[in-house]
Design goal:
34% of the residues lie in helices and 27% in strands. By secondary structure, the chain is of the alpha+beta class.
Length: 176
């Protein structure tokens, strides 16, 4: 079952029905979604939100959290781990525009990586970024993700990977 995660500056809190406005705001914002495949329709956002709530109640298949500032107690975005084949998951985040440039994506994704590898016992965490999303490429590289061999720069984007072994080498259990 999904649990809250705490970092130095953030609380990652499981998505709940009262987070509807934040979810809709993020995924229906043309600027915020330009590098993640585009703005979703109202119906698509509604379906994704309801599915996220349902998945959060189950054994891990897809977990979604809101990113909340401890200092201001403000919801600043959403992050998720979505199970893939075998024992791996995709990782992602979307932040409100006013929260960009503060290191919140880095901090929240590190916390999800720790949760994924240390609690869920994932073997691999993956990510994807569109070619034009330079910030995402910098973020994934800074976190220690590697471009997957052979598909590094396909037309649509970059595929990123971190194994549990890489995690163990790059991060100690107490460093996050």
């Amino acid at each position: 079952m999904i649990t809250s995660i705490e970092t130095e500056r953030l609380n990652l809190v499981p998505l709940v029905p009262s987070d509807r406005y934040l979810y809709y705001h993020l995924y229906q914002d043309r600027y915020l979604t330009r590098h993640i495949g585009g703005m979703l329709s109202y119906k698509a956002v509604q379906k994704a939100f309801e599915l996220s709530l349902e998945y959060n109640k189950q054994t891990f298949s897809r977990y979604t959290w809101t990113i909340q500032s401890k200092e201001q107690n403000i919801k600043q975005g959403i992050c998720a781990l979505v199970s893939g084949k075998s024992n791996n998951a995709d990782i992602g985040t979307i932040l409100c525009q006013e929260s960009h440039g503060q290191g919140l994506a880095t901090e929240s994704l590190k916390a999800l990586m720790k949760y994924g590898f240390d609690c869920i016992r994932l073997e691999e965490i993956c990510g994807f970024s569109l070619l034009q999303n330079i910030q995402s490429k910098k973020l994934m590289t800074s976190l220690g993700f590697l471009c997957k061999t052979g598909i590094e720069s396909q037309e649509e984007g970059y595929y990123w990977s971190m194994s549990d072994m890489m995690w163990g080498k790059n991060y100690s259990k107490n460093s996050i």
